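Technical annex, item 7. During the second reporting period the consortium partners agreed on a shared format for inverse folding records so that results from different sites could be compared directly. Each record opens with the tokenized structure and is followed by the designed sequence. A conforming record, contributed by the partner at site C, is shown below for reference.
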């Protein structure tokens, strides 16, 4: 890879590391900041420093599956198989159910595929998302992936690890269910409006995570219909009727509305059920419970 591409990427990573360091200086007990800084250092091939940050994160948060998983990836990168396997075992034990299969996939690769020496070539992401690299949608057909892979080889692409993963994707369709970033699940792209809050810091961070930025066309809210509909519901049914006194107050209001929206409010698309389905109670006294100070009500039988 040419230095013209590498230097800007490293500069961005340095800036993000400095941001994490400032967060740690403000709060030395911020385990997430240590973990994020460790990931950034690992991507810069500063593996010993990354291990130290993951150690600090686990000292502060001993049950953090993400820190165990990232430290395992780093041990694998430098060729320390026993420690990588041990950390993967802890990550699998502590991880939520939806992440267990992915961690087991990583562990299997370390156990059976990685030679007993440091991994050479490629990025820190052991299972880096090939679709972002090859500029393909996550639902691309195997024939399309194969063609993109062959074109990348003909063009002399130098990221051998990513190309290998792209080829193996043809043989392992379940790896294509979602893109991955740093060994953990992340969306392949983000659809958003053109609000100025999405500045260069946000877009740069998305790019560093391998997430494609997809702003909608100007004055076209229908292109992001689900999000715009939800925003409209929050405004019409909640915020247009309440005077917000500050950030803490706003968070409390939105949390209460989210609970109402998911557990109580009827949805025509769900046959007048709530997203978190409820059982129908046909006997008992009806009780009315006010929500958001009486703006909405929940009727239950007791």
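Designed sequence (site C submission):
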């Amino acid at each position: 890879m040419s230095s013209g591409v590498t230097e800007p990427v490293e500069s961005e990573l340095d800036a993000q590391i400095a941001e994490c360091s400032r967060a740690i200086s403000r709060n030395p007990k911020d385990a997430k900041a240590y973990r994020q800084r460790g990931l950034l250092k690992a991507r810069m091939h500063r593996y010993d420093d990354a291990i130290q940050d993951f150690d600090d994160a686990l000292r502060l948060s001993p049950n953090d599956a993400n820190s165990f998983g990232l430290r395992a990836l780093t041990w694998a990168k430098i060729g320390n198989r026993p420690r990588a396997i041990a950390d993967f075992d802890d990550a699998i034990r502590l991880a939520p159910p939806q992440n267990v299969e992915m961690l087991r996939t990583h562990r299997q690769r370390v156990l059976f595929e990685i030679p007993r020496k440091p991994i050479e070539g490629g990025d820190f992401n052991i299972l880096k998302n090939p679709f972002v690299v090859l500029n393909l949608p996550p639902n691309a057909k195997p024939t399309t992936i194969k063609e993109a892979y062959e074109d990348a080889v003909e063009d002399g692409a130098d990221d051998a690890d990513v190309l290998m993963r792209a080829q193996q994707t043809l043989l392992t369709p379940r790896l294509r269910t979602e893109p991955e970033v740093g060994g953990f699940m992340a969306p392949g792209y983000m659809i958003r409006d053109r609000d100025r809050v999405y500045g260069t810091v946000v877009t740069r961070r998305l790019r560093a995570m391998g997430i494609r930025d997809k702003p909608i066309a100007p004055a076209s809210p229908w292109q992001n219909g689900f999000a715009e509909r939800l925003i409209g519901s929050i405004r019409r049914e909640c915020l247009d009727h309440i005077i917000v006194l500050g950030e803490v107050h706003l968070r409390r209001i939105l949390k209460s509305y989210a609970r109402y929206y998911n557990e109580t409010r009827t949805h025509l698309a769900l046959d007048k059920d709530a997203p978190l389905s409820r059982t129908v109670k046909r006997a008992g006294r009806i009780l009315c419970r006010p929500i958001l100070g009486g703006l909405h009500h929940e009727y239950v039988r007791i």
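Confidence is low (pLDDT under 50) at residues 1-8, 114-129, 157-185. The beta strands are 180-181, 184-185, 189-192, 212-215, 286-291, 296-301. All partners now use this format for quarterly exchanges.
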